[in-house]
């Protein structure tokens, strides 16, 4: 890989004085200043006009003004919307796009395709060129500012403007009070075990058979995501227990988008972290049955649906934090589902992407990410686990 250009893209119009400070919500303050990185693969780029891509990004940044700002301190409680801009890198690769898609079974190689968000920046973009005329567009946005829904909405808006459309005007929430110096429990991360990332594809036909079986047993209607997430959590905990010879209390963390519950008018326009996390805790190894995990996950989602406002979201998450990141005797599995997100609708004028990848950050946490396959006939799951536990998981039939 060779970086061939680097530029800072600024908003096309200056941010008004009364919007120069974006106060973070309580939940924002608990979110890590870490990237949410997506990579979109396109076969038909063929040296498209990069200036159009940059100008459309500039126009979108005028509407999404905090994205072009800076966070001067992770605990400062706000973003300085100073219009300093977004880093835009171009890189060239000596391989073909098709070869790269096949090769990227090694997830570590994906990391060179996406940019790193610096310590103060909120967003970074990288356009990667391949010798076949294909390209990838990689976007990283800090989780301190957005959830997955806001990020995918922003990328689709950018693509729409590149095709000649007009950007949507999002609504950024202003919390009732400013939160500074929010204290997090000390995070204890064990670096003893090497972590690896692998992807697996589950056809809808197989998921639906399992879903029907569980629904028949529990007498409730379930989604593919609920059943598959619960299954993977169960199997991952089983793998960890097999590896250590000892069951360890385990928590499944599953965020859900609750915009539709809180905002009755234009919920899709509300930008930020508008999600509630469900925590399913298993204290006894005898509980780790698929039906039990599914039932607890469903109960947690129903309770999350009763949340009334963004302040309550933050308060609920704050009460969960000590259990999630402050207790080394508990193992936590962080899960996310991007199923049904319009990832494969991101069209910059070169057609829809042939592949979309989410790059799990290279940290020693246990992660599971679910996304639709390109043809929507299954779910691709990307998992990050300690290497020995991954080997045991792969042998679980």
Please provide a written account of the structure.
With 397 residues, the protein is of the alpha/beta class. Helix content is 30%, strand content 25%. It has ten helices and 16 strands. It has a six-stranded mixed beta sheet, covered by helices on one side. It has a six-stranded mixed beta sheet with strand order 9-16-15-13-10-12, with helices on both faces. Strand 6 (123-129) and strand 7 (135-142) form a beta hairpin. The longest helix is centred in the middle third of the chain and has 21 residues, at 224-244. The chain is globular, with a radius of gyration of 21 Å. The model has no long low-confidence stretch (mean pLDDT 89).
Query: Helicity level, as a percent range?
Result: 25-40%
Secondary-structure element series: EEHEHEEHEEHEEHHEHEEHHEEEEH
pLDDT averaged residue by residue: 89
Which structural category fits the helices and strands?
A: alpha/beta
Number-wise, the strands total 16
Strand content: 25-35%
* N→C terminal distance: 38 Å
| Helix count from the secondary structure assignment | 10
For the biggest β-sheet, the strand order reads: 1-5-6-7-3-14
Radius of gyration: 21 Å
Weakly predicted, low-confidence segments:
none
Sheet with the most strands, sense and barrel status: 6 strands, mixed
C-alpha geometry: globular
Describe, in short, the structure shown:
The chain is an alpha/beta fold and 397 residues long.
């Amino acid at each position: 890989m060779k970086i061939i250009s680097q530029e800072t893209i600024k908003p096309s119009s200056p941010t008004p004085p009364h919007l120069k400070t974006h106060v973070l919500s309580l939940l924002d303050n608990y979110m890590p200043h870490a990237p949410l990185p997506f990579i979109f693969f396109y076969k038909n780029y063929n040296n498209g006009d990069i200036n159009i891509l940059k100008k459309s990004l500039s126009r979108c940044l005028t509407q999404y003004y905090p994205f072009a700002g800076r966070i001067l301190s992770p605990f400062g409680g706000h973003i300085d919307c100073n219009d300093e801009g977004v880093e835009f890198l171009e890189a060239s690769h000596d391989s073909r796009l098709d070869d790269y898609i096949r090769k990227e079974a090694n997830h570590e190689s994906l990391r060179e395709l996406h940019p790193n968000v610096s310590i103060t920046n909120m967003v970074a973009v990288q356009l990667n060129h391949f010798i076949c005329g294909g390209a990838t567009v990689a976007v990283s946005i800090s989780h301190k500012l957005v959830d997955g829904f806001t990020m995918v909405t922003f990328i689709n808006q950018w693509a729409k403007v590149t095709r000649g459309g007009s950007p949507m005007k999002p609504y950024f929430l202003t919390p009732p009070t400013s939160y500074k110096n929010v204290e997090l429990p000390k995070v204890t991360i064990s670096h003893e075990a090497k972590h690896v990332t692998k992807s697996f594809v589950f056809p809808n036909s197989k998921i639906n058979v399992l879903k029907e079986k569980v629904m028949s047993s529990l007498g409730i209607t379930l989604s593919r995501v609920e059943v598959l997430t619960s299954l993977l959590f169960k199997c991952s905990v089983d793998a960890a227990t097999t590896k250590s010879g000892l069951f360890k209390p385990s928590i499944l963390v599953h965020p859900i988008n609750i915009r539709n519950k809180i905002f009755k008018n234009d919920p899709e326009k509300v930008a930020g972290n508008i999600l509630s996390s469900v925590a399913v805790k298993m204290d006894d190894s005898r509980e780790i049955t698929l039906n039990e995990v599914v039932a607890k996950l469903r109960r947690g989602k129903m309770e999350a649906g009763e949340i009334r406002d963004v302040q309550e979201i933050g308060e609920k998450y704050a009460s969960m934090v000590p259990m999630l990141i402050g207790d080394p005797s508990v193992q936590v599995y962080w899960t996310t589902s991007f199923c049904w997100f319009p990832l494969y609708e991101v069209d910059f004028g070169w057609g829809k992407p042939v592949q979309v990848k989410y790059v799990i950050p290279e940290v020693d946490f246990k992660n599971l990410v679910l996304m639709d396959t390109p043809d929507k006939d299954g779910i691709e799951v990307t998992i990050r686990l300690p290497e020995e536990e991954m080997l045991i998981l792969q042998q679980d039939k």
